[in-house]
């Protein structure tokens, strides 16, 4: 019988929109979780399911050899991992798996800091949104040595499909940034063409149906626009501020490598405009709204 089947202790830090469904899946698979989040309400459903509440990340890291972190910003990841009450102060932890999106620079900083205490950092950012986290269908981009991958694979396989993209810290993060700038670009470009089509008198559902049958299909036309824009729900579940952060990190890393990102910079500009008009907590599908206003049309209509 495998460890995965009998269950073993795991730590989980950050049980918000993405972290909570991943944590639920781990409990449902038989694992015993010790959790920490700054929001007590976020922890309550997991505690009701048997998770143990910890007072600090250090306490989590004193309860489990493998600790996962799902956190919103690079600075928070850095503080949780290396701060005075951070994972680095734990007495049991051996592996810290960061499923957040921080960029490769922060991943390497965290890895270097934890290595001083013989803790291995694994960057394993995920893609697939809240629905993917709930269904266990996330794409998990793992970067770590082979022996550590063998240790974390049974755990991460519960939350999604694994891709062992590299051996060193930061490579998983780079892979995630590549994915997210393409996701943002697809949403931005698709917003423009669908708005143009609607202004020309075309039906928005027909627009995406035709595009999805041809060479222009992408994640926005196949999912986000028909599911979240045409019915005017704008509830894909990924905050604009987080997407903006990911695009910024990607452009910064590209610039440091000397790789041009002409289209990426244009996408960042549209994201900034959307954040200014819709607010940083807007959904990423709200990207279409400033384009609609400029064109003087709306795509779809609210369901009654």
Shape: globular
Structural class: alpha/beta
Average pLDDT, rounded to a whole number, is 94
Poorly predicted segments: 1-5
CATH class descriptor name of the largest domain: Alpha Beta
Distance between the termini: 52 Å
How would a crystallographer describe the biggest sheet?
6 strands, parallel
CATH topology of the largest domain: Rossmann fold
DSSP helical segment count: 14
CATH architect. name of the largest domain: 3-Layer(aba) Sandwich
Element pattern in H and E? HEHEHEHEHEHEEHEHEHHHHHH
Name some characteristics of this structure.
globular, N-(1-d-carboxylethyl)-l-norvaline Dehydrogenase, domain 2, 304 residues, three-stranded mixed beta sheet, alpha/beta, disordered N terminus, six-stranded parallel beta sheet, Rossmann fold
Question: Could you explain the architecture of this structure?
Answer:
It contains 14 helices and nine strands. It has 304 residues and is α/β, with parallel strands linked by helices. The chain has two domains: 167 residues, Rossmann fold (3-Layer(aba) Sandwich), CATH 3.40.50.720; 121 residues, N-(1-d-carboxylethyl)-l-norvaline Dehydrogenase, domain 2 (Orthogonal Bundle), CATH 1.10.1040. Strands 3-2-1-4-5-6 form a six-stranded parallel β-sheet, with helices on both faces. Strands 7-8-9 form a three-stranded mixed β-sheet. Helix 5 links the parallel strand 4 and strand 5. Helix 10 runs antiparallel to helix 11. The longest helix is centred in the middle third of the chain and has 29 residues.
Secondary-structure map with pairings?
Layout: H1 3-6, E1 9-13, H2 19-28, E2 32-36, H3 40-48, E3 52-53, H4 57-60, E4 66-69, H5 74-82, E5 95-98, H6 104-115, E6 120-123, E7 126-127, H7 129-135, E8 138-143, H8 146-156, E9 160-166, H9 171-199, H10 204-213, H11 219-229, H12 240-257, H13 262-278, H14 288-295
Parallel strand pairs: 1-2, 1-4, 2-3, 4-5, 5-6, 8-9
Antiparallel strand pairs: 7-8
Helix pairs in contact: 2-7, 5-6, 9-11, 9-12, 9-13, 9-14, 10-11, 12-13
